[in-house]
Amino acid sequence: MKKEALKMLKDNKHFNQIYLAAKKGDKLSNGEDKALRAWFLSIENPKNDSGEFELDDALFDSEVSDFLETLKAAGLKSFLYPDSRCTANMSNMLDFCEAGWGIDEPVTFEKTNRWGKKIVTRCFRFTLK
Hints:
With 129 residues, the chain is an alpha+beta fold. It is 47% helix and 22% strand.
């Protein structure tokens, strides 16, 4: 299931179009850029143990709307938002909810960090309502 989900994510037409536009030098909004980086890390990271789209970064207030619109345009219905121990986490979570994304359930899974160590990752799954 994880491999199928990651293949569907990798083949996402909207994200591929944004990627090609960025590669060509087109200007992306900061929110689009964060969504593109999260997409790229979700599909290219061999250590993506969740098999889902994961935003492993905090957003500035000015990025939230474009980030979420990019996910909607790509047809994504959910994403994982881990605890990054950042002060923006709560603000981002409230912004997501106000924009129509609900906290679906807490998710815990093992993840391999960049040094090859297994760590427990706790996050919330946000689902478009």
